[in-house]
Specification:
The chain is α+β, with helices and mostly antiparallel strands. The protein is built from 4 helices and 4 strands; from the N terminus they run H-E-H-E-H-E-E-H. The radius of gyration is 15 Å and the shape is elongated. The mean pLDDT is about 90.
Length: about 120
């Protein structure tokens, strides 16, 4: 709850939470059951820039520390840069695949942007 920035909302009813807060609650609910795989469709769609970054760092940490595979759909290259690998899909076909390996965040992000611009 703390990592999702919801500590002060523990007693709130769902209809009193913002869309972004509700989205973070949904992610917390999904992770609490310790799944092997977490599917996320545009997980930062209703979040501001600060909360988006926090959520992506949280998902990256969950993947690394809890060994939960996170499969995420996003159109945001910045969100995509938190992944360990990317598949570019267009019209139902894989157009490109990119592995982070030992790249820094910035290097990986720049590769993602470059490929995005070429497609």
């Amino acid at each position: 709850i703390e990592m999702l920035g919801l500590t002060d909302k523990l007693t709130n009813l769902p209809n009193t939470l913002s869309g972004g807060q509700q989205q973070r609650v949904a992610i917390g609910r999904a992770i609490i059951s310790k799944p092997n795989i977490l599917l996320a469709d545009e997980p930062t769609g209703n979040l501001d820039g600060v909360r988006s970054k926090q959520l992506m760092q949280y998902l990256e940490k969950v993947n690394r520390e809890k060994n939960i595979t996170v499969i995420m759909v996003t159109h945001d290259p910045l969100d995509a840069a938190y992944s360990s690998q990317m598949y570019y899909i267009e019209d139902g076909k894989i157009k490109d695949h990119l592995l982070k390996k030992d790249d820094s965040f910035d290097t990986y992000f720049n590769k993602i942007v470059k490929i995005s611009m070429e497609l």
